[in-house]
């Protein structure tokens, strides 16, 4: 034991969102009983890579007596975690495991929407056209989705500003169909975090293409910049499609 810098998590502030989990390269943080926990002192290097990713400002670096950081213990821990994840994906590819260790709202889910018709006609005097959802995975929020989610492997990725589905009436059939999606608001959220998360998704999965859909308002171009930075940082050479949506619903391919 020695006095050193180490992560401290304020459980009163923590809401269990799990955003800090993938930010810790050592795997020292897990969601347990709905709260982020430092699972072992010797797995935390005290550098605080997870600090800026906490939307609740629940993580800080303090000094206290703690076991020394142990790189060999980290390697062993990560090896066990990776083996467990691979086993879970192999044995139960659609098992709906908790991507962040316990938060029900971020539980990984994959589902097949391809077997049904895209639209269904219902006659009640006038003909109503009902569009079938094209969403095939959960979660979709970029703050919550883990980069290692198995449904990203080999996918066409749609990155959507979160106002787009409300403004664009053909969102499901023209943009979402056949793609995996992540959403976020570049005005209200951390664009640097978005870029980092997207970089991880690109590096860890064989993404075939990226489509970014954004609103015409100036602040919304932040999500385009996040995608462009992620592709540059990941060193990827893949097709990128940009679709700008007007506030009155018109789509323009750029």
UniProtKB/TrEMBL annotation:
PROSITE patterns: 4FE4S_FER_2 (PS51379). InterPro entries: 4Fe4S_Fe-S-bd, Corrinoid_activation_enz. It holds the Pfam family Fer4_6. Residues 5-34, 35-64 form the 4Fe-4S ferredoxin-type domain. This is 4Fe-4S binding domain-containing protein. It comes from Geosporobacter subterraneus DSM 17957.
